[in-house]
User: Fold this.
Amino acid sequence: MLGPLDSGTMGTVLVVASDRHRLHAPLAEIESSGFQAPFEHPGRADAIHAALAADDRFEFAAPDDAGLAPIEAVHDPGLVAFLERAWQDYNRAHPGTHDVVPDVFRMDALRDGLGGFVEPVSIDAELGRWCFETTTPITEGTYAAARAAVDIASTATDRVLGGAGVAYALCRPPGHHAPHGLYGGYCFFNNAAVAAHRAAATGSRVTVLDVDYHHGNGTQQIFYRRADVQYVSLHGDPVRAYPYVTGFADETGAGPGQRTNRNLPLAAGTDDAIYLGELERACEAIAGFGPDLLVVSLGLDTYRSDPICDLAVTTEGFARQGELVAALGLPTVVVQEGGYDLATLGENTKRFLLGLAS
Ligand code: Q9C
Ligand code: ZN
Assistant:
């Protein structure tokens, strides 16, 4: 259980950050059948860092090394081991490859009727075994960057468990699309799930509130059957929005986790007024669950000019989102997820965090 909030830290926001995210720097992304410059790139975290560093209401800390245990508490150790060796193995088979991307998927179905799945031995087939889409290249430094993002989320969680009212984990690569045994959607390790599990393991009831434009299929899956962690998400309706097959309103949890999952799908063009009304409904669901600690999966890709999304949230809207979440009165770990409009990303993040700390 948590002690009272440390009032000395309210009003400033602790930012846990590392420049190791720059080790994950793909050259291209295969998206909508075309080669694009990556939307998810090091400039994103650098822009957020610069905006927060220019404001004395933020203080910075480096992450501690949390090791593998927090990752393997929420992910298949086979996925972790694969990501550690994937780039090297691929480059032994295909020397000189910068961005490693699978070119086969669903090979298990080729064995339908043959008497069971055979785990692939070839690195080419292994990629399709662990990855679910094409926009998430593995580069030489990807594993190190993904490990650093987990360290950041773990350290921010420890600070909040230790009494900080709010801590912001400036994670990159993001995490919420990674379920127990797959990577994709720009995500390798689920930083928010690591944070939530770490807090839950101390006996706290935890809610993950996901305000990224995209449904956090990975986080939802990891906690779907758990009673101690609630998942609440606002996102583009999966009838039109990635990841297409999760995020529907009738996904409410299962087994011991019945009624601990809440999805609020949104129409294209949703503006601040509608968004904030839905966020109030989300906050009512959270209050009903009665958590001790909140993890926010913070995406700024609901912004009206985001290049890959279609909602219409404004910069002022992000400040109001932060204020609404603050009204829950919970110790809060904010974990960075998406947001691809580089010109506004830092300011929008800052306004959310200042609203939260107000
Ligand atoms: N044609 C996050 O915001 N590409 N991930 C979608 C649709 C992947 C977004 C392709 C979008 C992933 C953390
Ligand atoms: Zn997103």
Summary: Residues 212-214, 299, 301, 337-338 surround zinc ion (ligand 2) (CB under 6 Å). The first helix runs from residue 42 to 53. The first strand starts at residue 13 and ends at 16.
